[in-house]
Backbone:
């Protein structure tokens, strides 16, 4: 009779990467020097694994890691193997219509910083409406 669970199942159950990845991209947004600044934590990823897209007023940040599924340790007998799976997470932000050429981004120490120029809005004008008899 086989045991209901493997002995290591309980030990590693808290390390479910799929559930973790949707919470990985913590973000701060603030204004500085005429720009909106987005600072997004993207740990475990390299610059080459991050893509930023802008379409119809939406800025989408996609991080995708493809680990090498085959390694030179083919004789290793794994009890659990999660690091070879595809890890992907993304966030989307509405930033309005801006020139995509003016959006700047940098990535350092696991933090993606995106500068989006603030769009100048039309100044609000106040107008009194005359009520006729």
Residues:
């Amino acid at each position: 009779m086989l045991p209901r669970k493997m002995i290591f199942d309980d030990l590693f159950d808290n390390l479910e990467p799929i559930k973790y990845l949707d919470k990985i991209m913590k973000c701060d947004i603030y204004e500085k020097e005429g720009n909106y600044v987005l600072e997004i934590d993207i740990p475990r990823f390299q610059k080459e694994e991050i893509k930023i897209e802008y379409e119809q007023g939406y800025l989408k940040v996609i991080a995708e890691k493809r680990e090498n599924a085959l390694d030179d340790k083919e004789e290793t007998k794994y009890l659990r193997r999660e690091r070879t799976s595809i890890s992907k997470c993304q966030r989307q932000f509405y930033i309005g219509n801006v020139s995509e050429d003016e959006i700047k981004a940098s990535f350092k120490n696991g933090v993606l910083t995106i500068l989006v120029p603030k769009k100048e809005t039309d100044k609000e004008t106040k107008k009194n409406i005359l009520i006729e008899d």
About this structure: Residues 96 and 124 are 18 Å apart (CA to CA). Strands lie at 27-32, 35-41, 50-55, 58-66, 86-94, 104-108, 111-117. The helical segments are 9-12, 17-21.
